[in-house]
Predict the 3D structure of the following.
Amino acid sequence: MKLAIAQTLSLPFAYNSPVMVLDFDLGDKDSNKITGRFKDLSRPRVFSFEITKKSVVYKPFVARTDSTELDAKSWEDFSKGYSYRVDSQGLRKEKAQCVKPTSYNCGSICINIKKNCKANADDDFSEERIDKLFKLRRYYTDKLLEINPSTQREEETLLEEKVREVSRLLKPYNDRQKELEKQKQEQIKEQRSRQIEVLKSEAQSKRTQLMALSNELDSNQKISSDARIKASVHLEFDDPESGIKRDLKFAESVALKLNKNGQKEADIFSQNELKIAIEAKKEIDNILDKARELIKVEKPVDIGVAFDSKNVRKPDEYKKGLEMFSEMISVPNLKETLEVKETDSGRSYYKQGAIHMANPDPATIIHESGHWLEARNIQVRREVKEFYNKRTEGEPIVKLSESTGDLYEDYEVTKVDKWLHHYIGKFYGNQPSSEVLSMGLEMMYKNPIYLAKNDPEMFDFIYSVVRQGN
Ligand SMILES: [Zn+2]
């Protein structure tokens, strides 16, 4: 824009000499004037100008000491120069200097500095140039309007107002949707808490039936009293199966040793011990079968199991544990597969959708699958967390190695509570995992009677948390 104004001002009909535009004002949108100041490029002279569609008007611009009088010093500086003409053929003809210090060149004449020099654009070429300049001015004023901050703010305000209007109109609808969603969530919550109440009383009756099983044993006259006592003692602990297996192994090894020595009395003794252990084991298995039946769900869910074909050579070994696990839970929408891998690290673990097994022991499979379930179902996870927090409220965090005296890593900590094993309270910080469900399911499998007898609250919780479906 500056350049276009300078070019117009330099035209032969106007100042007729190269100028530099110092500043300009395009006026408002409807104005037909361009005003500003320019400097003669070869002389230290500054003029103010006004360009209209018909003419160019300019006069010397000098700083004023006051509002009425010209500054004498400035005017002296100004008067030292003189103007010259460049005609349309490009030939330079020097014009006579305006001798009087109070006059300046206006075209071919000298005029008083107080007067305006008015030059009309009366040839086609000049008219065309002025026309172009005003088109450019138009373009500029439009553009300026577009980027005018106040206009922009106005538009923004309008837009914001529209947004507010729309959200105001939509508010009843949105509120309704929110309300419906809230109601739906509350309904689900209520439904679940009613379900939990039912499950609680169901669990209570299961506990009664489990106690009845152990009482039945005490009055069972079909087995020897020695076997009955042995079985009963083992059933008082969390893992009767392992306990009786140890007894059996011991009796067998003693019998083997004594047999070698050929002592008849000893032989009778060992035969008897072995017989009792076998009988007790049979009874324990029998009772555990019945007890496990009691804690199975009505409608087990289908769990998609995938074996890592590279390292699981005998998938059948895992069948018993996986089958039992699926029969212990009723949780809908378990879409992700349970991947089974083998690890030679010595300790089984769960990680990212896969259980890594150190052995195919059913209790361990159930434990690790419990981690899988907790990771895969948000409702289960929520309830586990709630239960954990409720149980461990106000409990300090302590090292597992110190609280149990067993070998645990230093980072493994727990909240002791009244858990049957300190490991159940293992504290995972902000991680969404726990040992509550895994240990609970494992204990539920190993000996439901033990869990029911020693931690009925935990028994009832595990019983209900894995029953999310029917
Ligand atoms: Zn675990």
The CA atoms of residues 27 and 164 lie 36 Å apart. The chain has a mean pLDDT of 86. The chain has three domains: 2-149, 222-294, 305-465. The two ends are 80 Å apart (CA to CA).
